[in-house]
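FORM 12-B: Structure-to-Sequence Request
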């Protein structure tokens, strides 16, 4: 079989192009992953188009891995519904120093929260219970009834006790309840759990 010099690579050239060991090239030719022939002098020649095709597959795999990594690094979307200014400031301070990439939206009552949650479809919703206009109980019930928000992790942060919450009708669905003052280390761990679940 005769080809022009430009139509083939030596084993070492193919190994350098594909960034693998020479022994790997030999294995790939034996397995038929690369097309090759042996010269009369016993030198193996690798068909250029075969090397280029495998190189393109490698580059495509790298591009997919890069895209997957970028997707995993997209900021997690969080909506906080809280009317207390001091609490809002604490959220802002703690989120600012966290190394988690977050897209955070803060609203001061259940009505504003509900209207914007339907637009944002956040990964996590963090809500107080006692708020003006529409309280957290009403807002969370509406969220729980919305199929578009079934993916959202619901977290309540309240000064109310379990009995007080129960006496007010309780909370719908599977909602995590944290007490004020909010332990931000616990909240951060919950956020990381959601990120891990989303990228699994």
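FORM 12-B RESPONSE
SEQUENCE OUT:
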């Amino acid at each position: 079989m005769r080809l022009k010099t430009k139509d083939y690579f030596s084993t070492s050239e193919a190994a350098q192009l594909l960034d693998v060991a020479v022994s790997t090239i030999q294995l790939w030719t034996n397995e038929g992953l690369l097309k090759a022939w042996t010269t009369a002098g016993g030198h193996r020649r690798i068909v250029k188009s075969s090397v280029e095709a495998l190189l393109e597959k490698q580059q495509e795999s790298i591009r997919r891995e890069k895209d997957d990594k970028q997707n995993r690094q997209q900021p997690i979307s969080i909506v906080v519904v809280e009317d207390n200014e001091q609490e809002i400031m604490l959220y802002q301070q703690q989120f600012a120093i966290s190394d988690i990439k977050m897209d955070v939206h803060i609203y001061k009552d259940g009505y504003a929260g509900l209207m914007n949650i339907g637009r944002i479809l956040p990964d996590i919703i963090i809500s107080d219970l006692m708020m003006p206009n529409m309280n957290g109980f009403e807002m969370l019930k509406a969220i729980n009834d919305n199929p578009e928000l079934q993916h959202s992790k619901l977290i309540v942060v309240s000064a109310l006790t379990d009995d007080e919450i129960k006496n007010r009708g309780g909370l719908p669905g599977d909602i995590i309840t944290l007490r004020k003052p909010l332990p931000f280390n616990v909240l951060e761990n919950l956020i990381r759990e959601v990120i891990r679940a989303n990228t699994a």
